[in-house]
Amino acid sequence: MKPIRTMVAFLLLLMASSVASADISHFSGNWKNVDSNTRGLTTLKIDVKGTRVRIQAWGRCHPSDCAWGYAEGTAYAPSVESSLTEAAQAISTIYLTSFSQILLIIRPMEDGQIEVEMLTKFTDQSGRANTRRIERLSRVEGDDLKR
Fold first, then answer.
1. What is the Cα–Cα distance from 45 to 17, expressed in whole angstroms?
2. Which of 55, 54, 39, 43 is nearest to 120 (CA)?
3. How far apart are CA 89 and CA 74, in angstroms?
4. pTM of the model
5. 63 upstream amide cis, omega within 30 of 0
């Protein structure tokens, strides 16, 4: 009986940890945070050409959002035999500021949105705790991101 429980537990864990795969072009486009009141990431513009990924990001600032600039992205597939263009599961990039390092991990969601995990390490000796945020973004049409 114990081997059956172990196998069931393993299958439940595997199902719970599944990650959506997407054609890498799914990431391409303009994305806005679904939470208009976010204090973190507000907008992404992702350009994909082949397996090359370039990301422009904006974060919440006052009175208008702060442009973080462009950064190169790296796509990840489920195995070394996988095609990045056909089975990308995530994209990552790093932004360096005068006071922090921000790692973005971008994953496709089954509903067509993307999830962005934002890991911020403060480098300015301010004593602030490093942070982790999860943001959800929806695709917006056109080049006008209306920050």
1. 27
2. 39
3. 11
4. 0.81
5. yes
Strands (E), the chain: 29-33, 41-49, 52-59, 66-76, 90-96, 100-108, 114-122, 131-140
Q: Is 106 exposed, middle or buried (0-12, 13-18, 19+ CB in 10 A)?
A: buried
Instruction: Report pLDDT digits (tens) over 26-52.
Output: 999 999 999 999 999 999 999 999 999
CATH number for 20-140: choose from 3.40.630, 1.10.760, 2.40.128, 1.10.506. Answer: 2.40.128
C-alpha–C-alpha distance, residues 101 and 87, integer Å: 28
Residues facing residue 75 across a β-bridge: 91
The separation between CA 74 and the C-alpha centre of its own chain, rounded to angstroms, equals 11
Q: Where are the domains of the chain?
A: 20-140
